Each structure stands twice: as C-alpha cells, then as structure tokens.
TrEMBL record:
Residues 364-389, 1103-1128 have a biased composition (Acidic residues). Keywords: Carboxypeptidase, Cytoplasm, Hydrolase, Metal-binding, Metalloprotease, Mitochondrion, Nucleus, Protease, Zinc. One of its GO terms (biological process) is proteolysis. It comes from Phoxinus phoxinus. Residues 775-1064 form the Peptidase M14 domain. Residues 358-398, 1103-1154 are annotated as: Disordered. It is an enzyme of class 3 (hydrolase). Its main location: cytoplasm. Its cofactor is Zn(2+). This is Cytosolic carboxypeptidase 1. The active site is at E1028. Coiled coil: none annotated.
C-alpha cells in the first residue's frame, strides 16, 4: 500500500527538482542552455500531463513554480520550449478553477503571453500550434484579468488575432480559439471600435450563415463576438450601412424555422443579441422597422410563446420590439394640466414660470437619443474597472456631510413681534378657565343619538366659540365668506340629487345611478332640493351606515362639498364619498404575480402596430374637448371624474374591451401622474375589461409587487356593501412607447411614460363603479369628520378648531388643538394644564397619499375618544394637529403639488406667504411655540409611500448621518441624545404594521427643505419625523402578506397615540413608580437599546431598493437610449442599485427627473 505514495512523492520532488534546475538556467541564460531548457520543460510537461499531484505541487503556495514557468516563457525564443511551456500552462489552468488562473494573472502572465503572441507573429507564417496554444490560454485567462482588454490593445495583440481569423476562415482548429479571444477583446468598448475599423464586423458576417448543424460552437462564438462589437455605436452604424440588420433578421427566421426541436436556442438568442445591440442606435431602430422587424419578431415570438424553454427568445424579442416601437407623444393637445390656476405672483425661474415659457411644440417627441454619438471614442474610457467605483459611490451621494448643516440651529427666525399674531392659536396657554362650570360639565352626547338627528334635520355646524381664526370660516350657507367674488357663479346654496340627463328614459336601476349633482347654478333646476322635477328625481337608496360609520353622514357630506372650492368648479359628488366606506373585514392578500403577464400585455400593445385595423381608437372621455360630445352608441364604457379628487383627463377605447386612460397633471404643472380616481359606467357584466393608464411616470410601482387598485361598486353599496375593495387581475407596470420631449421632461432625453394596466370583470349590469389608486379621502370628507368629531367633545376634552389660513384656492386649512380640560380653575390644575408638552402632527401635504389621511383619522378618533388611555394621553400633552396641509391639491385631484405647481414638502426652508400659505403659517406657528419656550416634544408629518411595504419612520440623527458618510466619526465631537429612537422603537413593539428595520435617521441633502429636517434643524425638535405608510401592504408582522386597508391605517393612527402615551411615561422618570411592571420591563428594554454602542446596526439606509428583481425585469428596463452606456447589462444592474429617486415620497420631482 505504501508503494504508490512513495512513487507520488518521488515524482513530486522530481518536478520541483526540474523546476529549480530550470530556475537556475533562467537566471543565467546562455545559448548553450537552449537544449537543456527544452529538455527540462519537456520532462515537466510530461510529468504534469501524467500526474495530477505534480500540478498541485507546481502551483502550491510558496513553490514559486508559476514564476519559474513564466520566466522561461519570457526569456526563451525557442519554439519547442515555448510549446512545452504553453503546454504546461494549458494543463495547469485547465483544472483548478479560478485560483490557478488568478496566480497566473497576478504574476504578470497575461502580458508575457500577449508579447509572445505579437513577437511570434512578426515572421509569418506563424506556427499554427503555437498560435492555437497562445489563444487557448488567452481565452482562459482573459475573462479573469480585469485589465485584459487594455493589455491586449497596448501590446498590439488585437490585429494579430484579427489577421489570424481573416486568413484562417476554414481552419476550424485555429479559428475557434482565435474567435474566442476576439470575443473577450471586444468586451472592451475601445477595443470594439478599433476592431470594427480593422474589419472585424465583415469577418464575422463571413462566418455567420444560415441554419446549419455544423460548427455550431464556432457560430455561437462568432455571434457573441459580433454582439459585443455592436455595443459600439460606431460599429452599429457600420452594420446598418452595410445592410446587416435585414441579414440578421433573415438568419434569425431561418434558425427559427429549422431549429424545430429547439436544440440551438443559445444561437437564436445570440442572433437576437446582435439585433438588440444594433437597435440601440436610432439608425438601427429605423432599419429594424424598415426591414419589417416588428412583424418578423412578433410572429416568431408568438410561435415561441407556448414553449417555456424559449422564454429567453420571447423576452429578448419583446425588449427589442419595445425599444423600436416608434415613440409617440401622448394624444393630448398639451401635457400641461387642463386646469390652470392664476397665481398671485409667478416667481421667475420657478416651475410655473418655466412651464409657461416653454416654446410651442414642446410636447412633440423627437427621437433624440443619438445626439452624442460622434464623440463616442473620445469619451470612452477603459471601463473595465469602473464598475467597482460607481457601485460604491452612488449610495452616499445624497447624505448630508456638512456637519454645520447637521447641527440644529436657529435660522430664518422671525422677530417675535411678527410671530405674536400666532398667539391666538395658542390660547390654551393663557386661558384661565374662570368661567368654566367644572361642577356641572356639559353632558356627553352619545354617538348614536347624534346621527339620526343629522340625517334628517338641517345641518348645523356647531359653532366653536373659540374659533376665530385669522381667516374666516366658511359658513354653512357657503355664501358669506368665499373670498374671490368672481367665483360667485359657482356658489351652491342648495343640494339636490338629480341624475344625469341620459338616464331619463330608463326605469331600472341605472335610473337611480345617475350622477350625484349639486343642483343650482349648473343645472339651474331645483332651488332647495325639493321634488319639483318629479320623475327626474332619483329615488336613491342610501345605505344605512350610521351605526358602522359614526363619523359619516351623507347629508352632512353634501353640505361640506358646497363650501369646498375647486379649480374646475365641480358640481358633482362621487357616490363612494357620499355613501361612505365601511372597511372590509376580509383579508385581502397581496396579489401573486401571474407568470409572464407583462410580456403578454406588451405583445398586445405591439399588436396595435402590427394589426392597426383592429384598433378602434375612439375617444370616450376628454376634458380637453368638453364641448365636443362623445358619440354614444351604447357600446362603450362611460367615464367621469368631475368630482372632488377626480383626475381622469381622457379615455380612449382601444379595442372592444380595452381602454387607454390619461391622467391629468397636477394643476400648474405638466407631470406628477400617479394618483387616480374616476367613475366607470355602462359596463357589461362578466366581461374582462382591460384598463391602461398610459402616462404614469415613476420607474417602478408596487403594482408590480402585488398591489391592486381599489374599486367601489354603487350596486354593491346599495345592496349593503358600501366599500372600497382591492380588485383587478393581470396587473403590471411597464415602460411604454409614449414619450415627452426633453424640454418637457426638464432636460432629460426621450423620457418615456409607463403603463399601469389592470383587468376587471364587473359583476353587475348597469352598475356605476369607481376606481382609485388608494382609498379616497377628500377635503370635504375631512371637514365632515372634523365636524362629527367636534360633536364628540365632552366636558373632559379641550377641543378647538381654527382656520390656520386660507389656501390659494380659497379653502381653509383647519388647525386643531386637543388636550384635556383642566380639572378645575385652581392654580395647580391650570399650571399642570399649561405645562403639558406639545405634540405637533400634520398630514396630507402630498395629495396622492390618501393613506396618510386615514392614519390621521385614526389618530384624531383616538384623541377624541372617551377611553381612559385617551383621557390620559390628553392629560399628558397638548396636541396641535393640521390634518391636511394641502387641501387644494386634494380637492383638485393632484398627486403631489399645491396650486402653485410645487411640492409643498420642499418649501419648509423658505415658505412664501402667498404661494405656500399652509406651510408658511405652520412653520410660523412652530416658531412661535419655540419662541415662547414650548418647542414641541414630538413633530410628525404623516405620509404615504408608494415603493415600500409596511409603516415606518424617517427621523434625524447627526451621528447616524455622519456614520453613513464614512467620515471618521471620532474626529467629530458629537453629543446626541438617543431619544429620537424611542418612539419608532415603541411603535415597532405596539403597531403590527410598523417595521423598525425600514426606519432611517439619516439626513439627506435632497430632503433639507422637508418638514422633518427643517423642524428638527430650525425649530429644534429632536423627535421630528416623517411617518410613511405603505400604499400596498405588509411583509412582516401580523399583516404579513396582506394589502393594507383603512382599518389597519386607522389602527396605525391610534397606535401612534398609544406610543406617545408610553413615550410620556418614558420621558418622565418620576412617573415611573406609578406604573405596572410590564411597562417597566418595556422601558428597561428601551434603556438597554439606548445603551448599545453601535446603534446604527438597526438602521437601514433606505435608498436601497427594497423589492427583489422579478423575472420579467429584462423587459422592464429596456431603454431606448442605452447606447450611451458602454455596458447595458451592467447599467441595468446599476440602475437597480441606485436609489430610485421616486422611491421616497419626500423626494421632489426635480430630483427624480435629474
Ligand atoms: Zn409624501
């Protein structure tokens, strides 16, 4: 048994002995040693070929074997020695994987090989075996050497290989390794350009031919080389000029027809790879269209669809077709908002000035993506090592690194005299309650007794004697205080429910499902809602939801609508807002994405181009052309969104059961399309209708990750199910062929729109259904809720509602003050009352984030409830609440902006009193509180997040920001209280939807003008937060796998209150003794957390994409102008590592577009 081992050892030592001989000879090379070296290398080669152990010996650590071998190669000019050494290397590198190759590269092997290649080719004809060996080795080494492309070019190796290929087209044995190396050279873009000039493209086309079962390996390598060469725009142009694109299409068809058993999918994929790269340039796309590429690839793909293994072909074809689909402008006269609102002044250089200074024809779309190609070679660098750098840099770009900007400070502080006017919003601090009758407090009005009264009798808005804001409230009559007299024509002093004129002849249910119209000025009919119009009055069955919806009252809602001022002067009311929404008790799971749904949708879109005669293209709703009535043949759906928060601009019937929909831009802007709310009627039950919202802007959406749209059926409501339900199948979100000009897109070239598509089957005939992006929550609804809430006030509750200011659109912005009444007017009680810390809450600065209003509703209901915890909470704090910071945006169906066309959550640094009144006065009120020593303990602005799941918070921490920037934190003298972590930590323990791991406390530059950062930095509120609620659902906790509903959102708002209650205990150690052990445990737990030194480990830096890539990503990221990037594949990956600018609702659109 010992014998083989001995033998092995013996041979191993022998190879090392030979190598050390070789080493000596290498050191003092003499002519006479040539034979010796040849002999030794021959022996080594033999040993290595026959003994696996010897290979390991040679490359084992510290053996120096590789150096000796390379040194021989470098020094000798002897052909046989070279062949021996190359043979040795080939044996060594064939097995052992990347490690041996890594050793080879690190010892400078690549350059030695390349030099040998070049020097051996100087006296042609070169030795064929030598060339084969060198190229086989280069092919092994190239992909492992990051600098391979550069080294090859600098050594002059490119042309050697090209010439070898050119002259050996039929010498398969030599051709294959040379092509393989050429393929590796070409992955460097500069090399690709140089090789193109040397005729490499033409050579490849000499090799590539029609279907043949011979030499498929060679063909595959030639195609891959060609594809790599075509990544250069210059080569792509050359290919188009020579008519190669039709050739490639013909070859593709040939393989598609003949490869019936799908044995050569890789070759077919490689042909598509070449087409894909040529069509990166405009000329290529044109050639593709001219060569009927669309029809060819479409037909081939359709035949491939049933075979799952052909998916790569279908996906690549779909990507090419989408890229080549001619870009269109949206079918609109202009992408500027339909509705304009004159501003008191238009700041020069602001978004509105820019919008209206745009030249005519700005919306026209030109394929602009080739502009910079002429400079391609100059701007190309060697890109092989750049990935490393860019990969890291991007992540920290947005983090604030200026320590001075991170330190809280007082800036822009107005003189106290100017702030004094805010005193009357804070009367609780000066009131002495002497007139209060604490002995006989006003009795509590039970909820159930309130509602019936409100249902029938006249609506009386309870007058809060304390509410005399700087601006006047709207009176119930709505006729006194509407500020702009020119609007008097839309004053609505009576309401009646009438149906739309087209319902006249019908007697069935559709009759009662006409539109809810606010009668009066528009219809000119009834004056006071009487039944004088006889048969035209709908006998509407209002679902009785009083018991389920204590804060809802249809009549009161209509009353509220009357005093709501919209830019389009809406006179209709949407049924869901009128009837109310009773939250479902059903679980609504996050939808699982159906396989291949995206490409099926894309193929249907492509069919429009291939079979244009199948397309109806009938406009069925058009806000831009309201005077031109839609011809109704009873076959089309009817659309409407002329009601509060509605924003459908145009609807086009594309096919019998398919509609393209266009959303209106935010007023005074030409973009921000995301939120939607519209009505659909005249549907057929049991039919699958496809809806496409075709002017979405964000690059990704939760609609790709299981989120469904919301639908409200009026029939269902009348039948006892008045509720918004998650609905729709085949939902997906992808880039489409509509585009806008670079000027309209703020300088970006060829900015494409995205399609959000969903399919719905309606249940009822003659129903009226509503669709929304998320659970609607209108401004009128807020006013109704506030009125009902104020009616809940008891003697124990101190409740005040004032108007903080009037908005640009003439609506009031409510400000609430909620706390507990003092127990008596004694000095002690009054002093306790006044010493309560302030909690400042706000919501809905972004109108499209309706979820934030539902969370706020939950908070307010809790604050007004009579539970002992609510009472305790009121006794602990004074709440200042602005439940809707952007009423105008909400009313007019905006997604992000106010009427000034700006994101109000980007105005906190320098709000303008005229253009951003709600922000200006909110900030001033905060400044007043600070100036009077009442800086809030907590500030929280409620938002909605469209890219992430769960509920989470953003806060501000100097330390966590500094740590993220890799600045040596120890050099900065930082003292920071960790109290900012307590509230999120409490929430993560209490609120099931809340996720601590999604929270971040990093201060970003792009957010320096948001409420959170400004209130932290300028007002000095340490616990200053943005609370983000998902629009989709949760992926952790009790609600894992479920879409979020209003119950969960309202619960979140209530849990926020409970967390504040615990925070109060936690922040007042003296009170600890009074509470139970459970609470103490929890607090100890919190203290533990606070003492962990490296607390940042919990923080996720939230710029990361939180959703995994999904299967169809390849389609999804298709860019029309990716030829500007040297490496489209890398680009796609990079793109996902980059922060999606839209992923955070706080990020301004400007950021997202630039
Ligand atoms: Zn937001």
């Amino acid at each position: 048994m010992n014998k083989p081992k001995m033998a092995a050892e013996k041979s191993a030592s022998r190879v090392l002995m030979l190598l050390s001989q070789l080493e000596r000879l290498n050191e003092e090379p003499k002519v006479s040693d040539k034979d010796a070296i040849r002999q030794i290398t021959g022996k080594v080669l033999h040993l290595i070929q026959t003994q696996e152990k010897t290979r390991k010996e040679v490359v084992s650590k510290g053996s120096g074997g590789m150096e000796v071998i390379l040194s021989s190669l470098e020094n000798t000019r002897d052909l046989q020695t070279n062949l021996n050494v190359l043979g040795i290397l080939n044996e060594l590198l064939t097995v052992g994987g990347g490690r041996r190759t890594g050793v080879f590269v690190s010892k400078g092997g690549t350059a030695i090989l390349l030099q040998l290649l070049v020097s051996s080719s100087k006296d042609p004809p070169a030795n064929e075996e030598l060339m084969i060996l060198i190229h086989s080795l280069l092919f092994k080494v190239g992909p492992k050497d990051k600098k391979f492309g550069v080294k090859a070019r600098l050594n002059g190796a490119l042309n050697v290989t090209v010439n070898l290929v050119k002259h050996n087209l039929h010498n398969y044995k030599l051709l294959l390794p040379c092509l393989q190396v050429l393929r590796v050279y070409s992955s460097n873009l500069v090399n690709a350009v140089s090789l193109g000039r040397s005729g490499a493209l033409e050579i490849m086309f000499d090799i590539i031919g029609p279907f043949s079962k011979k030499s498929t390996t060679l063909l595959k390598v030639a195609l891959d080389t060609l594809a790599a060469l075509l990544k250069s725009g210059m080569n792509a142009r050359r290919a188009v000029d020579r008519g190669y694109l039709p050739t490639l299409l013909t070859i593709y068809q040939d393989w598609h027809r003949n490869d019936t058993r799908h044995r050569h999918v890789v070759i077919r994929k490689s042909i598509l790879g070449c087409i894909k790269n040529i069509t990166n340039i405009k000329l290529g796309r044109k050639a593709f269209i001219d060569a009927s590429g669309m029809r060819i690839l479409y037909n081939a793909s359709t035949e491939c669809l049933p075979v799952r293994t052909l998916d790569p072909l279908v996906n690549t074809s779909s990507l090419i077709m989408r890229k080549c689909f001619p870009k269109n402008r949206l079918p609109l006269p202009t992408i500027k908002s339909v509705f304009l609102h004159p501003l008191p002044h238009v700041p020069a250089g602001g978004p509105v000035a820019q919008l209206y200074n745009q030249p005519p024809g700005v919306d026209d779309v030109v394929d602009e993506s080739d502009e910079n190609e002429a400079t391609e070679v100059d701007t190309e660098n060697d890109t092989e090592n750049e990935e490393d750098e860019t990969g890291h840099k991007t992540q920290n770009d947005d983090i604030e690194t200026d320590i001075n900007k991170l330190r809280p400070r007082q800036i822009n502080m107005r003189p106290f005299d100017e702030l004094r006017v805010y005193e009357h919003f804070c009367r609780e601090f000066t009131e002495n309650f002497e007139d209060n009758d604490f002995e006989n407090p006003r009795s509590f009005i039970p909820l159930s007794s309130v509602n019936p009264e409100l249902h029938h009798g006249p609506i009386i808005i309870p007058t809060t004697p304390t509410s005399l804001g700087p601006q006047n409230r709207c009176s119930p009559q709505g006729d006194v205080l509407l500020p702009n007299s020119d609007r008097s024509s839309v004053e609505l002093d009576s309401i009646s429910i009438s149906k739309s004129p087209d319902g006249k002849s019908d007697c069935d249910l559709v009759y009662s499902l006409g539109r809810l119209v606010l009668d009066g000025s528009v219809n000119g009919g009834s004056v006071d809602g009487s039944q004088e119009d006889g048969g035209e009055q709908a006998d509407l069955e209002v679902p009785d939801t009083a018991a389920l919806l204590p804060l809802h009252d249809p009549d009161l809602y209509l009353e509220m609508v009357k005093s709501t001022r919209s830019v389009p002067a809406y006179t209709e009311v949407a049924y869901p807002d009128y009837f109310g929404h009773v939250a479902l008790n059903l679980r609504e799971p996050i939808l699982e994405r159906a396989y291949g749904v995206q490409r099926i949708k894309i193929f249907q879109d492509i069919e429009r181009l291939i079979h244009p005669s199948d397309i109806i293209d009938k406009v069925v709703y058009d806000l831009d052309n309201q005077s031109c009535p839609v011809i109704d043949n009873g076959e089309s759906l009817k659309f409407n969104s002329k009601f509060e928060s509605g924003n459908l601009r145009k609807a086009m019937q594309v096919r019998k059961f398919e509609y393209d929909l266009i959303l209106n831009s935010d007023i005074n802007s030409n973009h921000y399309h995301q939120w939607f709310y519209f009505e659909v009627g005249n549907m057929r039950p049991g039919v699958r209708y496809r809806f496409n919202i075709i002017n979405c802007e964000k690059s990704n959406s939760q609609f790709n990750y299981g989120m469904q749209v919301l639908m409200y059926s009026v029939q269902d409501a009348i039948n006892g199910r008045p509720q918004w339900v998650r609905t729709g199948s085949d939902i997906c979100y992808y880039k489409n062929h509509f585009s806008r000009s670079s000027i309209a897109a703020g300088g970006q070239k060829g900015k494409s729109y995205f399609t959000m598509t969903f399919t719905v089957t309606f249940q009822h005939k003659d129903d009226v259904c509503y669709f929304a992006y998320h659970y609607p929550y209108t401004y009128s609804m807020l006013k109704m809720h506030l009125q009902k809430l104020s009616a809940l006030s008891t003697a124990q509750i101190y409740y005040r509602q004032e108007d903080l200011c009037e908005t640009l659109g003439g609506n009031s912005c409510p400000l609430l003050t909620i706390t507990a009444m003092p127990e008596s007017s004694s000095n002690d009680h009054i002093s306790q009352f006044r010493s309560r810390p302030v909690v400042f809450l706000s919501a809905r600065v972004h109108p499209g984030e309706t979820n934030s209003s539902w969370v706020m509703k939950g908070t307010l209901e809790f604050l007004m409830s009579c539970s002992p915890q609510a009472q305790s909470l009121r006794e602990s704090y004074i709440f200042k609440v602005i439940p809707m910071l952007n009423p105008d945006g909400v009313i007019n169906g905006n997604h992000r902006c106010s009427l000034s066309g700006e994101d109000l959550n980007r105005q906190w640094q320098n709000p303008n009193t005229e253009l951003h009144p709600t922000i200006y006065h909110s900030k001033s009120l905060l400044q007043y509180l600070r100036a009077t020593g009442r800086t809030p303990l907590v500030f929280c602005d409620y938002h909605g997040h469209s890219r992430k799941k769960n509920v989470f918070m953003y806060g501000c921490s100097i330390k966590e920001t500094v740590w993220q920037t890799n600045v040596n934190a120890s050099t900065v003298d930082l003292h920071e209280d960790l109290g900012y972590r307590t509230l999120p930590k409490l929430l993560s323990q209490m609120a099931p939807a809340f996720s601590l791991s999604s929270c971040s406390f990093v201060v970003e530059r792009s957010k320096e003008a948001t409420a959170r950062v400004v209130v932290w930095r300028e007002i000095g509120v340490q616990r200053s937060y943005t609370m983000e609620s998902t629009l989709c659902g949760c992926d952790q906790g009790k609600y894992k796998g479920l879409q979020i509903g209003t119950n969960e959102l309202e619960e979140m708002g209530a849990q926020f209150c409970l967390a504040l209650l615990r925070l109060r205990r936690f922040t007042s150690p003296l009170e600890l003794h009074n509470h139970n052990s459970h609470l103490l445990d929890m607090e100890n737990d919190l203290i533990d957390t606070r003492s962990i030194p490296n607390i940042t480990s919990n923080t996720t830096y939230v710029l990361d994409e939180d959703e995994p890539a999904f299967l169809e990503e390849v389609d999804y990221s298709a860019e029309s102008n990716d030829e500007n990037d040297p490496d489209p594949e890398g680009y796609l990956q990079d793109n996902h590592a980059l922060p999606d600018p839209n992923s955070d609702s706080e990020i301004s659109h400007q950021d997202s577009l630039n």
